[in-house]
């Protein structure tokens, strides 16, 4: 069973909780063929999965570094395509996520389309939503590696 961090404590997570971000992405993919709004809703849900797991990854690194978590004023989201959020993520994890990753440009393009739909009603095609889901999938693959590094750091600590 996978390990995870919760309230600064290592816990053995249930599969449903540990992989909630993957459940969100799978649900998003299931919406792709669903009529007029399916692709737009799929893209929106896929990006929700990315934000959920970005938040969990940052929280894991807060614990791994022994930081007493404080709310960060002015950062209301966990969208890694946002420069301020990415800067905070990189400071916590040491992972300079961005242009050097092959999935990054597609992720940013899909985030922009997701924003255009959510904030302005822009149309989203199935092909665009599929590309967005693929970009999020690749981002999640990357974040899962970074999250696991934090979990391993906490697990390697001597017991108190």
Structure report:
The chain is mainly alpha-helical and 160 residues long. The protein has one domain (3-156). It is built from six helices and two strands.
Alpha-carbon distance between the two ends: 23 Å
- Strand proportion: 5-15%
**What is the rounded Rg?**
16 Å
Q: How do the strands line up in the largest sheet?
A: 1-2
What multimeric state do the chains show?
Answer: single chain
Helix content: 55-70%
Q: Can you tell me the residue ranges where pLDDT is under 50 for at least 5 consecutive residues?
A: 1-14
Number of helices: 6
Q: What labels describe this entry?
A:
160 residues
In terms of topology, how is this protein built?
Blueprint: E1 3-6, E2 9-12, H1 15-18, H2 20-31, H3 38-64, H4 83-93, H5 104-120, H6 126-156
Antiparallel strand pairs: 1-2
